[in-house]
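Regression test case RT-17, inverse folding.

Input:
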């Protein structure tokens, strides 16, 4: 080979090497990077091109991606991790509670009455007053709990005679109505409880004002937004979604699984996402009442222009209620209310048909099941209809599972979508509801499920709980209440690694998105956050005070 030919080959190799070399638009250095990717156990630097992570590694390795126009930022040892993923929340209800009476932190019936009285002063007569967040088992005083652990409506009705009032339980599975609201709904002592619900009456048939599960519709149908003009409904949906997404972004949440929206709400959310108005990636489950459900399913899957920003190919159903409102469907009666075993809120034959429809249409089925009986029945239907195991069907909450049913999750590849914060939030009354043995052996069995190889997801169920992910992560690794350090069977807690994965890559898997997000891996979307402390090494209590310093979404800083 002559010398000129050799020079030409060398030049060509150098030319094509330079041409193919990818320079980053943005590089962060001197960070403590938690990747949530087992193949990248440690790193200090990231390189991003466009909205994609190009490389993860040491400062020296990543600086090879620096070009003339690359922005480089020194994070001075700050902690960097994937954007957090709310694995089960309710974006519309969250936005609504931010706009209405928020009762999540109330500690007594008197405090609730005072909150409503204050709202009455500024509300025109005849207008509905709505709120959410009360939980009778979290009140410091029990003197008002006069029947079935509930107060009577009298005090509420007295301070709001000219305003119909509806206050939804924190769980969303019961509501309190005043006399004005019940009069509008024509509720009387003769009113009958519907199937799967209860109008709570005392032994003398006096109505307390509490409506559980399906009985809630007797009141809520009168404030249904379905009666509003379509333009007004869409405006409300947009406002709530925007308020909720901004609050989520504040806490470093870049992805959000919405656990139940109507088809109309989904279309509005899709439009918002397509217009680039939401600082979130949304994964939405469709929920409709049974009369409309099969008709609406035909319109799924619904995607936005960019599948990485919006998707809706999942269906939500409810088979029971919540433990706090005696709605969780149990195998045995409640320890503190032996006449009750909870509520089966959806006919099993209907759920079986729904599972078959989802199977045929390749949709993800996500079923709310809290009680051990509810979990057993759902697992049986999943075994029958989802027997290929690649559907990634989910049981939402899965809070109380009979030990004999735990291996059925693994066998049928069912995702246990469990919200860790529910454990510590509910801890004060779980043993009261179930007794010691059932509380210990069936409740919030994260460690057991993980050790058996069951896939899990995590989240807050906002607005049932605060959206703050660090409170949920703290609950995951300690199983302690933040206020009084009450510890709920600590042998079932998660490790730090598991807790962080449950809020990132595990939730991405639960929505079929682990190939594009959930870890800081080359080729994935550049969604990441910068925190004021190292979540892998700080003390347990320090987790609670974590602050989000910066949020990067699609490779761009948005906070």
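Golden output:
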């Amino acid at each position: 080979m002559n010398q000129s030919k050799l020079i030409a080959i060398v030049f060509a190799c150098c030319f094509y090497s330079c041409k193919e070399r990818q320079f980053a638009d943005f590089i962060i250095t001197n960070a403590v990077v938690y990747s949530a990717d087992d193949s990248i156990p440690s790193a200090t630097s990231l390189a991003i091109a466009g909205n994609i992570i190009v490389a993860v590694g040491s400062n020296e390795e990543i600086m090879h991606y620096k070009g003339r126009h690359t922005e480089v930022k020194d994070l001075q040892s700050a902690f960097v991790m994937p954007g957090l993923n709310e694995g089960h929340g309710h974006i519309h209800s969250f936005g609504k509670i931010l706009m209405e009476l928020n009762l999540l932190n109330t500690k007594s019936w008197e405090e609730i009455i005072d909150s409503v009285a204050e709202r009455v002063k500024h509300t025109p007569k005849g207008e509905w007053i709505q709120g959410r967040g009360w939980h009778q088992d979290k009140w410091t005083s029990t003197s008002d709990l006069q029947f079935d652990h509930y107060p009577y409506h009298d005090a509420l009705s007295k301070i709001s005679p000219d305003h119909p009032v509806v206050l939804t339980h924190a769980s969303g599975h019961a509501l309190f109505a005043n006399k004005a609201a019940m009069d509008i709904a024509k509720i009387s002592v003769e009113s009958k409880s519907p199937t799967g619900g209860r109008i709570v009456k005392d032994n003398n048939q006096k109505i307390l004002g509490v409506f559980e599960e399906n009985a809630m519709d007797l009141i809520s149908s009168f404030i249904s937004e379905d009666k509003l003009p379509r333009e007004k409904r869409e405006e409300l949906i947009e406002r709530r979604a925007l308020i909720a997404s901004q609050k989520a972004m504040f806490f470093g949440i870049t992805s959000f699984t919405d656990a139940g929206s109507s088809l109309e709400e989904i279309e509005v959310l899709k439009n918002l996402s397509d217009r680039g108005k939401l600082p979130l990636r949304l994964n939405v489950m469709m929920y409709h009442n049974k009369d409309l459900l099969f008709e609406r399913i035909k319109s799924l899957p619904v995607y936005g222009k960019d599948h990485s920003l919006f998707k809706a190919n999942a269906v939500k159903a409810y088979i029971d209620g919540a433990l706090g409102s005696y709605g969780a469907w149990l195998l045995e009666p409640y320890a503190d209310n032996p006449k009750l075993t909870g509520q089966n809120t959806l006919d099993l034959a209907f759920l079986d048909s729904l599972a078959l429809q989802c199977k045929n249409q390749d949709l993800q089925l996500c079923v709310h099941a809290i009680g051990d009986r509810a979990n057993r029945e759902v697992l049986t239907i999943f075994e029958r209809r989802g027997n290929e195991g690649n559907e990634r069907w989910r049981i939402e909450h899965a809070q109380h599972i009979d030990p004999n049913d735990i291996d059925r999750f693994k066998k049928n590849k069912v995702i246990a979508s469990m919200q860790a914060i529910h454990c510590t939030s509910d801890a004060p009354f779980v043993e009261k509801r179930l007794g010691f043995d059932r509380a210990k052996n069936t409740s919030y069995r994260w460690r057991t499920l993980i050790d058996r190889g069951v896939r899990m997801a995590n989240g807050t169920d906002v607005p049932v709980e605060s959206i703050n992910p660090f409170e949920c992560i703290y609950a995951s690794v300690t199983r302690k209440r933040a206020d009084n350090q009450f510890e709920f069977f600590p042998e079932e807690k998660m490790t730090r690694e598991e807790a962080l994965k449950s809020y990132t890559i595990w939730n991405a898997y639960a929505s079929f998105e682990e190939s594009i997000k959930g870890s800081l891996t080359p080729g994935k979307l550049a969604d990441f956050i910068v925190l004021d402390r190292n979540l892998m090494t700080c003390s347990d209590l320090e987790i609670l005070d974590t602050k989000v310093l910066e949020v990067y979404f699609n490779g761009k800083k948005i906070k």
